[in-house]
Amino acid sequence: MSNITVEFVGVKTEIPIEGLTFEALEQMVFDISRAQAQQALTGAIVKYDNLLRKTRERSLLKNLGLRKKKMQTLAGDIIYQRTLYRDKNGDKVYLLDEALKLSRNQRMSLKLIELFGVLANMGPYRAAQESLSKLTGLFRSHENIRLNVIKEGKRIEDRRNNEIKKIKALDYTLPQELPEVVYTEADATYIRKQNRGKKSGVKHLEVKIGIGYAGKEPRYKKGSLAAQKLTRRFILAGIKDSRNEFLDKLSCKAEEVYGLSLVQKSYFGSDGDTWLRTGRDEYFSRSKHLLCVFHLFERLRQAFCRNRQAQAGIKKLFTLGKIDQALEQITLAVNTSVDEKQTEALKDFYGYVANNRQGIEASMSLRLDKAVKTAGAIEPNIDKTIAHRFKGRGLSWSEDGAQALLKIRETILNGEWDNWWYKQRGQKLQIKALFKEPLTSTVMNRKQNVAPFIEAQLPCWRGPDQSKPWVGVLRRLSQARLPA
């Protein structure tokens, strides 16, 4: 195998010592090292191109001469010449680009784009521009950083959507170790929209977020036992999907990560909103609903804001699982209220409790089970994923910009950032068709064993579609006894 040599040119410079500080010396050495890195990188590329030109199959590729290319790199902008060829089909080819895995018309190194994503994840784009300049000595406009982040975020989004398609096609591998308990939680929040109210009249974008985890463990080996972290956690966030589409993707992700359909105990936590309650029935039917106790008691405090004694009494009834008695107390408060606004608040709270009574009962009964944790982990994860980056004075977002950055933050928070750049980014996913061509009547009338075909069509009650209505129909049909 041939080699190329990377050369760093020796540099000598005389510096007047009058007024010299350590910071000035440090900056000077850093600038010189960057200039050396640019020369070394350019020289290595040219040597590689020369090596490819000498070792190519001359009968297959015709040399068309050198062409100039400019690349933005971590060391700074470099310009070099590489050889253009024409193959037998008449197509133009750059062997150097293919060897270095550069995509067509690529003008920026992936390491620089990766750094853009990390900096944009940490703060506003203008702050990312400033941090980039201080860290590397490079100047890139905040708009340049933003456009590259959006482009990369869309690429990640396409990959994640294809992964969901593979799960729906039952083309996935279950985890080697199934957890004893799985928790999934979901919620939604809002961020300010750019050009608020113009044309569409929409002022906010709804961000859906879901998490999955297999329990909690101490955050530190020593010290406070109260500090805990989620185990085997993943985060899913998005704007463009409808609420049902998002819950569908969340259930698929939980199936891939935990084997949700095979886990003995699974719980779905929410704040009790209607879309989450009904979505749990459709997409997480095997999971028991847990109402977040924090939201329950917060709604209780708001409804009985003028009566702390009633708050304490109803809270105790909730804790004991006496939901009917709690509803009676709320009804009594509604009938005796003389304030119209307060009456409406009490009625809303009554409906909230009545609709979520199963979630309340489950949450309260499980508080005695030390092996099962209560719901509510979604709130700090909303802050970590969304509030800390997307909410703030003066911040507003386009749908594409927010969605792309969400996917980058999701990838980083899930610990998949390095895996994305060094494995997934250049990998193409093959999505298999879920169903084969339907059998014709001629084939069905032949005397043959069609059991394998039927078996191949019915893995659905153990896959991501196990909670769908049509799967329930198939399950009931398979259990029915046909007359002899």
Structure at a glance:
This protein has helices at 22-55, 95-99, 110-122, 125-136, 142-168, 243-258, 274-283, 293-303, 308-319, 323-336, 340-355, 357-366, 378-390, 399-413, 417-424, 441-445, 451-457, 469-479, and strands at 62-73, 76-86, 92-93, 181-192, 204-213, 216-218, 228-230, 234-238, 265-270, 288-291.
Protein model, in words:
Strand 2 (76-86) and strand 3 form a beta hairpin. Among the domains are: 22-107, no CATH class; 441-478, no CATH class. It is 49% helix and 14% strand. 26% of the residues are buried. The chain is an alpha+beta fold. The protein has a 5-stranded mixed sheet, with helices on both faces. It has a 3-stranded antiparallel sheet with strand order 1-2-3, with helices on both faces. Helix 3 (110-122) packs across helix 4. The protein has 18 helices and 10 strands.
- The proportion of strand residues reads 5-15%
What is the string of SSEs from the N terminus onward? Answer: HEEEHHHHEEEEEHEHEHHHHHHHHHHH
Instruction: Determine the structural class based on helices, strands and strand pairing.
Output: alpha+beta
Largest sheet: 5 strands, mixed
Multimeric organization: single chain
How large, in whole angstroms, is the Cα Rg?
Answer: 30 Å
The rough form would be described as elongated
> Which stretches are poorly predicted, pLDDT < 50 over at least 5 residues?
448-457
Q: Indicate the percent of residues in helices.
A: 40-55%
Instruction: Please tally the β strands and state the result.
Output: 10
Mean pLDDT: 86
Give the spatial strand order of the biggest sheet: 8-5-4-9-10
Number of helices: 18
- Report the end-to-end length measured between terminal Cα atoms: 73 Å
